[in-house]
């Protein structure tokens, strides 16, 4: 596992955001305990053995195997997986194929996506920084996956399908990278994409908003796909601008800033850098409705 202190700035920032949510939660708990301790007389100060307390706290960063403190994420996330080996009922033993058949939820979206979801297996749901690292340390990285495999990391309760209520009006930012030239970097790119997702750093309205109720995150999930000739990393959003202007301008701005953050802070490219070439695409946005209309003229946003 990469230790957090060795992460480059963007990943560290994402990890910190995940941690700051955890710390805020811990502070609330501590306050509750202090205010709620009825055994103390008014004005009496509780004695705390700080050293003993510090000695018993083992975070994942100080002790990666025997930590005893967990830092909750903003929300729980579920990892899903498919590959040629997960197709069909009798799954051969591969690193990821020991997962039970996952019933598709009986929501309208779940029912509509039943065919698509048949081969996609639920791996695990986690809700803390520590569980994320535990999972990350124990799964095969994208560079070592077979061709035609996908990891889907989605918020708990959202299935990785266009048909899900949370996705049906949305779209995706994606980049396609030639396999040969990017084998050495794809694992880090995917790690930083996951960190930005679980740390909620993609959506500026959530991370820059001061005071008031935070708006709902536009991000529903992130995907890495391995294909014979290329890798693809995608970020799915709840909404997609229609490109008609007017009312949609604010949404378009918000979507574009997610794309720019993805391109520069997460993937590490310069904003003005052009990336398209043989087997490579720009960082581009397409609504799911346009993805479904295969072959027709698609309206892409490019950053
Ligand atoms: P893909 O795997 O996202 O694209 O979708 P790729 O990698 O270009 O194609 P591949 O053949 O190399 O895997 C492939 C096809 O899967 C789409 O054209 C759809 O037919 C189907 N599909 C993809 N997604 C994300 C969905 C979905 O969410 N719901 C349904 N019903 N079908 C989907």
From TrEMBL:
GO molecular function list: RNA 7-methylguanosine cap binding; translation initiation factor activity
Signal sequence range: none
GO CC, any one term: eukaryotic translation initiation factor 4F complex
Biased composition annotated in UniProt, kind: Basic and acidic residues: 25-36
UniProt xrefs under Gene3D superfamilies: RNA Cap, Translation Initiation Factor Eif4e
GO biological process, one term: regulation of translation
Region (Disordered): 1-44
Bias (Low complexity): 1-24
Pfam families named in the record: IF4E
Family: Belongs to the eukaryotic initiation factor 4E family.
Name under which the protein is recorded: Eukaryotic translation initiation factor 4E
Species of the source: Lentinus tigrinus ALCF2SS1-6
């Amino acid at each position: 596992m990469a230790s957090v202190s060795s992460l480059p700035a963007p990943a560290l920032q994402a990890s910190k955001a995940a941690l700051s949510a955890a710390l805020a939660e811990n502070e609330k708990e501590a306050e509750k305990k202090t205010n709620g301790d009825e055994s103390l007389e008014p004005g009496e100060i509780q004695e705390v053995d700080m050293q003993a307390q510090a000695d018993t706290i083992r975070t994942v960063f100080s002790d990666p195997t025997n930590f005893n403190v967990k830092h909750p994420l903003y929300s729980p996330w579920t990892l899903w997986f498919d590959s040629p080996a997960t197709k069909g009922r009798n799954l051969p033993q591969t690193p990821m194929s020991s997962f039970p058949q996952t019933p598709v939820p009986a929501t309208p979206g779940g029912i509509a996506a039943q065919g698509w979801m048949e081969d996609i297996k639920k791996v695990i749901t986690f809700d803390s920084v520590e569980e994320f690292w535990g999972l990350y340390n124990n799964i095969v990285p994208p560079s070592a996956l077979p061709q035609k495999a996908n990891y889907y990391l989605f918020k708990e309760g959202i299935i990785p399908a266009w048909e899900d209520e949370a996705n049906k009006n949305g779209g995706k930012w994606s980049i396609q990278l030639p396999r040969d030239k990017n084998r050495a970097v794809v694992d880090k790119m995917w790690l930083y994409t996951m960190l930005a997702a679980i740390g909620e750093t993609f959506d500026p309205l959530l991370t820059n908003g001061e005071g008031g109720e935070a708006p709902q995150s536009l991000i529903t999930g992130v995907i890495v796909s391995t294909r014979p000739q290329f890798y693809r990393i995608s970020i799915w959003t709840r909404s997609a601008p229609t490109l008609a202007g007017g009312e949609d301008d604010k949404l378009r701005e918000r979507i574009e800033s997610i794309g720019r953050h993805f391109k520069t802070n997460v993937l590490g490219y310069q904003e003005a850098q052009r990336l398209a070439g043989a087997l490579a695409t720009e960082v581009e946005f397409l609504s799911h409705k346009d993805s479904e209309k295969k072959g027709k003229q698609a309206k892409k946003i490019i950053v």
